[in-house]
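Hey team,

Filing this mostly as a record. A colleague (T.K.) asked me to run one chain through the structure pipeline before their review meeting, and I want the input and output archived in the tracker in case anyone asks later how it was produced. No errors, nothing strange. Just documentation.

Input sequence:
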Amino acid sequence: MKHDLRILRHPILDFKRGRKVGFHFEGEWIEGYENESIAAALFASGVRIFGSSKRLDHPKGWFCGIGKCSSCLMRVDGIPNIRTCITPVREGMIVELQGKKGALPEQPEIEVERQEKHVQVLIVGGGPAGLEAGITAGKLGLSTLIIDENPKLGGQLIKQSHKFFGSKKEYAGIRGFEIAELMLAELKDCGGKSLTNTSTIGYFGRGETGRHKYLVVQQTAEGYKLLEISTDYIVVTSGARENYLSVPGNYLPGVYGAGGVQTLMNVYGIRPGNRALVVGAGNVGLIIAYQLLQADIEVIALVEMMPQLGGYLVHASKLVRHGVPILLRHTIREITGDEYVRRATIMEVDENGKPVEGTEQELDVDLILTAVGLSGSSEILLQAGCEQNYIEELKGWIPIHSTNMETTIEGIYLAGDSGGIAEASTAMLEGTVAAASIAEKAGLKPEEAKKIKTEALSELNRLRESTSLKTGAAGKRRCDQKWKESKTDEN
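Output structure:
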């Protein structure tokens, strides 16, 4: 394949791709780089179709880029249902489209090493909440292990090229990917351990010792490693997944989640398209629209159903200065193309959000970036048996948790988007609260732990009471009340 969509020059980012790695894809030889995922290397080589839908045979392509959708499942070295967006390329590997059924190989040649691990605190997820939980726990004398299914720790931080707002404690004036580097260095300094390319299998209750039992599988260059982890405490910081856009043609390759575009563009340095339409004018849509411009991608327009911006004016102003139209009270009506996105039809909506007939505009685009919100990834907690409740203010079913971030199962905590969508700063503070609460309960440096927790809760309350997060603050209070009620029922 002759294509190479890799970005060679960027005003901010320097892509460290590593050495070249060749692999087989559908009978062709593809060249990627050792620091790329299979899906990223294929995309850079011009491959857009990663599979087809089971029922309607629609083409499927890149979408989330972090292993939380099924768009990139392929057969790798005979093994089906491999999430190619989080699986690194390896010299000589054989990658195939698997069709509608991921049939198991008849004679799999898989080496599985089994190992037991013991740790005081297991943290599931290595984004901002997980890293901060690991740092705080390490400083308070707890042994910790962070596991993450992605090749790199940092979560959404590693995709962010803009400078953060807030106070010095919240890394104000520092770019997101630089914050991740600082946090990783701090985690290492306080003795925190981590495993990447490691996926959860499930929670298996408490063993005879009373410790929580958790099974995970780690993918290594040599094969797979099955780990049985026994731990006193678990902190789930599994983040969120992209919401889909409900519109005809939303399945076409070229319709990508906001985070998926950032992964391609800012992590792997690959152009996601040439002419983009951005749907959603919250902070995420506004920020990534500007990042598209930085990668020399034309942004045709940004559409938003609401009559006002959902994000900060400073982000919108950058787009306006570059001549990008921000169309309020507009929505996308249809996406068309043969195998890929070719066009999008947008139109106005009235004060009730209803389409205004006769206002349709057709745009020639090959990339539609959907910044239409997130849903918390709480499946790990629900599988463990944690109770959940519909919290209207948090806009979804939320695992019930206390102010200290503890769920209805003693010793299992959460932090970040799995307990309600918010910002990175909030996620970090919740990670701090969870870890400090654990240290306080375990009797490790209890006075210091209490002080850290109190300060973090104070800052959390300040952030949550801001205009944009005020509804969420009420939701958190209701969540804590539900947690107290569940404990009363137990007694």
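Quick notes for T.K.: The chain has a mean pLDDT of 93. DSSP finds ten helices and 26 strands in the chain.
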